[in-house]
Amino acid sequence: MTSRKLAVLLLALMVVATLACGPLGNLGDMVAGSEAGTAASLWSDVPPYPGADQVDLEMPFVIRLAVEAASKAIMSGAGDAGGDLEFIAFTSDASPEDVQAFYTAARMTGEGWADRDDTGCGLSAAGAADVGGMCAFYKEGQTRDSVLIIVAAPEDGGATSIFYIRIDADPERMATAEAQ
To answer: How many helices (H) and strands (E) does the chain have?
Structure first.
């Protein structure tokens, strides 16, 4: 298994394990020192979920820690120069399962994301139907490689919070850091 596949798998497992702790709504009060959505708008190569509204939510603390820790693995130890992590939040009346079903391999491949065995949707915490799930996609670029994580989780009142988390990295800097 390549180091990138292993890193994506590690990130997916960490986010799933974090989701297993409980619904995101219960973690909202634990956020400390994070900024609400660091991206001003959804990226042009990520199709928006129909009918979802952008909201100013902070990423729950536990999810933030898991994503930041896993991003260090994805960036192969390249440090701050290796990559940039951004996120944006939306809310929808759709279920987390509907959100995951929207992000098909065909739809994401059409936007330039790789069709790989280690990417896609449907990851969720076993035995925790109310937790929701996630999708993970990868894109190789000429100057930047990207990982996109979509976390869809139910909130109290029937809404679903959708967090789009993107990590962009310079593959040359990652290779240089990995070789050192």
So the answer is: 5, 6
What does the block give as tokens for 171?
């593959």
Residue 92 contacts residue 99 (beta carbons within 8 Å): yes
What is the residue type of 161? Answer: S
Short-list 62, 48, 82, CA closest to 164: 48
Residues 60-79 have pLDDT tens digits of: 776 677 666 655 555 544 45
Give the torsion sign (CA, 177, 113, 49, 24).
negative
Structure tokens belonging to residue 1: 């298994």
Q: One-letter amino acid identity for 153?
A: A
- Token pair of 41 as six digits: 């708008």
Residue ranges of the domains in the chain?
3-179
Please state the pTM of the whole predicted model.
0.72
Q: Which two tokens stand for residue 48?
A: 């928006």
Please, which pLDDT band fits residue 98 given cuts at 50, 70 and 90?
Answer: very high
Backbone angles phi, psi at 35, to 5 degrees: -95, 140
Tokens 């952008």: give the residue: 54
**Distance from C-alpha of 109 to C-alpha of 122, rounded to nearest angstrom:** 17
H helical segments located in the chain: 3-19, 61-74, 96-102, 105-110, 171-179
CA-to-CA distance for 49 and 152, rounded, in angstroms?
A: 11
Find, among 161, 171, 121, 165, the residue nearest to 26 by Cα: 161
